[in-house]
Amino acid sequence: MNATSNQGALDGLRVLDLSRVLAGPWASQLLADLGADVVKIERPGAGDDTRAWGPPWLNDADGEPTGESAYYLCANRNKRSVAIDLSQPDGQRLVKELVSKADVLIENFKVGGLSQYGLDYASLKELNPRLVYCSITGFGQTGPYASRAGYDFLIQGMGGLMSVTGRADGTEGEGPLKAGVALTDITTGLYATVAILAALARRERSGVGQHIDLALLDVQVACLANQATNYLVGGVVPRRIGNAHPNIVPYQDFPTADGHMIIAVGNDGQFASLCMALGEPEWTRDARFAGNAQRVKYRDELIAMIRSVTVSRATGEWIALMEAAGVPCGPINDLSQVFEDPQVRSRNVRIEMQHPLATHVALVANPIRMSESPVQYRHSPPTLGQHMTEVLRDWLDMDAADADESRVKERL
């Protein structure tokens, strides 16, 4: 192990996380995984909304539910929790003391929601000019929708993702679909992390922090990627085409004798290899399929031809043939199959951590692999208010007696 590997890339960075649910907590968990000291500020008695988003629940050693939801557990690893009532003057003063020691603050209150407590950026930058303050909302700090609440499902619809997700009109099961996970929240969390790190890099040069305004709707539109530019450049509104690709053919799912598989041909060489693997080498000489543009034009004919062949063998047989031929191909796994996959197992994507309410909790590992400062799993997702005393001691230099939760109000 490298001499520096016991120290995270963001070791020494202090983050106050006032966010709830997924987009903000996803960003703060990523910062925490990279070594930042993330303190999660939660409502006394309730905490993050997602603590109640079960079942399933984490079970204790006797198999009884602990009340900690799997949803909450997915986004709050490596953090420390303190319970502070922001609606009370004592709570506001305590948060401001913590802000004075913080590098970053993440929040996802409605626009203006924290100004009533004096915890908005304009107020806090006077207290700590170096503070990087990241606000995550549904629609941003400006514009006609700024005051609206935003939720992932709503934004997937408004932001265009559902218009290109789902079976085509006129086919069985037609209609728009959302993604199976809250992708808009996740991608917003990732953009937030990038923005925070960029603001910290600038602070190294300027000495001052800044306000980051992130909107779920902005992120969703940005993440339409080629579909958005297909429209902007081509002038044609993209349509739902199921699992097919709008710009590449063949690049979709195909039926097999015992299920389905994915074939993802990205160039003409791979298409020629596919034809050989399918036992149809003459297709490479068909003018309709001579290049990708032609294959897109004659999509329906080519897909029907491939389907007529793929149903003749089982998925495993086809995958072996395709891999030998150098054709990108794979199964459509459910979650039990994902975590049993030999590649997933070899990469240690499933981890286990000790938990104060259970013998352990199983979580998904951070996918970032760094040679000099690897991700470390220091804290399991915290119970509500678990770290009140130690955070006040570490951040505010209180002695053990003053940092006791029962004496905090006396100090304020």
From TrEMBL:
Keyword Transferase: yes
Listed GO MF terms: CoA-transferase activity
Organism: Paraburkholderia franconis
Gene3D superfamilies registered for this protein in UniProt: Crotonobetainyl-coa:carnitine coa-transferase, domain 1 (3.40.50.10540), formyl-coa transferase, domain 3 (3.30.1540.10)
UniProt protein name: CoA transferase
Keywords, comma-separated and alphabetical: Transferase
A Pfam family that the UniProt record links to this protein: CoA_transf_3
Alphabetical list of InterPro entries matching this protein: CoA-transferase_III_domain, CoA-Trfase_fam_III, CoA-Trfase_III_dom3_sf, CoA-Trfase_III_dom_1_sf
